[in-house]
Amino acid sequence: MRRIWAALLVVLTLVALSTTAAAGAKGKVSRPQGPFTIGGGW
Questions:
Q1: Which of 3, 13, 22, 41 gets the most CB atoms within 10 Å of its CB?
Q2: Which keywords does this Swiss-Prot/TrEMBL entry list (predicted)?
Q3: Is the pTM value of this prediction over 0.85?
């Protein structure tokens, strides 16, 4: 069971990082990007 939770945690982290990087690259967000920004930033 621990392998499943570890895999989920890794996937969520990668998704959050990729989303933040994509939002920052597009330049949509005028506010500084945080480490936990998901979905394009608020």
A1: 41
A2: Signal
A3: no
